[in-house]
Amino acid sequence: MLGNGYEWAVARRYLLRPPSDGFISLNTILSVSAIAVGVMVLISVMSVMNGFRAGLMESVLGYQGHAVVSGYGGRIEDHETLVKRLRQIPGVVRVRPYLQEQVVAMNAGRNKGAIVRGLPKSQLSKKGLDSMTVLRGSVEAAQENGGLVLGYVLAQRLGVTVGSEVTIISPRSVATPFGSTLRYLAYTVEAVVEVGLYQYDETFIGMPIEEAQRFFRAGDSISTIEIFMDNPEDIDSVFPLIQETVGKSAYVASWRSFNPALMGTLQTERVAMFLILSLIILVAVFNVSSSLVMLVKEKSGDIAILRTMGATRASIRKIFLIVGLSIGFTGIFVGSLLASLIVIYIEPIKRFIEWMTGQNMWDPATRFISEIRAEADPTEVAMTIAVAVLMSFLATILPAMRASRLDPVSILRHE
């Protein structure tokens, strides 16, 4: 008679003590490796996509705000009163007024289209720049000296650095005794910053708002007011209050309207990528199923002996379910561990690959954001593990059922 719990002992023997030819042990290693690779790839790729979306959102929202109030004709008069009223709306944590105009920036024969932002004193500081990173110089010096803050890509295109002079040309013509002419002035570059989004880094110019109002002859008016929420997802409930506060003096847009096609594409790609990469796990569990079928054939004599010793069909099924699920769970654990290491060390891994291949693996010009990042979503990780467990279980059922239906009499007769 067989004692209780013998199924685990038999399953462990099949997993860890293969026959002398080593076929089963190699097959087990390959099965575990296949599932581990599938889980690792799925979690890693989804985490990189989440990191890309989060980085894109942070850069866009950090630069444009969660809601943007724009004046008709590009000007908002008496903006101080409107700013105070907007700050009193529940959920609003910060309001940022500024003057924005398109210009042409020139230096030593080089010219580039750019966007000038006249920023208040509170924003021309490291704290006020939000997601921007100061690479060279001092943004406080720009406020004190009436200088410029340039995006690093724009600075590279113009061939300038801190201390260089850049000529700003406004497309708005001004009347002179000799006719209309373009307005232009030379300013000193006081700081070079990284906005975090490539298209902004190649166009951003910041200057004190007083200097911008004087240069563009805007008086005390501004062009835009940006509103920042405690939680950007709450914008739908707060948006009607913002519109009511602004009234007909300007028009309002929420962050959901910024690049809607891009945001929709990213969401669609996440779903499609999850489904496509899940096929890797499906292929891996087919390998588990085939190896279990071979194991059943290899161990048919053992199964017959166990049946004659009193083992039930349910016990035989349990043995092979334990074997299959052990392979599946081990592969899932190893794959999750490897994916965690990739998520944590994604930047060093990128640098190592670039060093090995000599290629730039993350070009900001084509990837929008300046650096690669990975953020694991607990819900997606749980879904990945659940899908892998379900597939492993389904792949194990057929071989286990086949093993339990073997006739011990016919097997022993041919042994």
Topology summary:
Layout: H1 6-16, H2 23-64, E1 67-71, H3 79-87, E2 92-107, E3 110-119, E4 133-137, H4 139-145, E5 148-151, H5 152-158, E6 165-176, E7 179-194, H6 198-201, E8 204-208, H7 209-215, E9 224-229, H8 235-246, E10 250-254, H9 260-298, H10 300-308, H11 313-344, H12 346-357, H13 364-367, H14 378-404, H15 408-414
Parallel strand pairs: 3-8, 5-7
Antiparallel strand pairs: 1-9, 1-10, 2-3, 2-6, 2-9, 4-7, 5-8, 6-7
Helix pairs in contact: 1-11, 2-9, 2-11, 2-14, 9-11, 9-14, 10-15, 11-14
Would you write up a description of this structure?
The chain is an alpha+beta fold. It has two domains: 6-58 and 262-414, no CATH class; 77-222, no CATH class. The chain has 15 helices and ten strands. Helix 1 packs across helix 11 (313-344), helix 2 (23-64) packs across helix 11 and helix 10 crosses helix 15 (408-414). The longest helix is centred in the N-terminal third of the chain and has 42 residues, at 23-64.
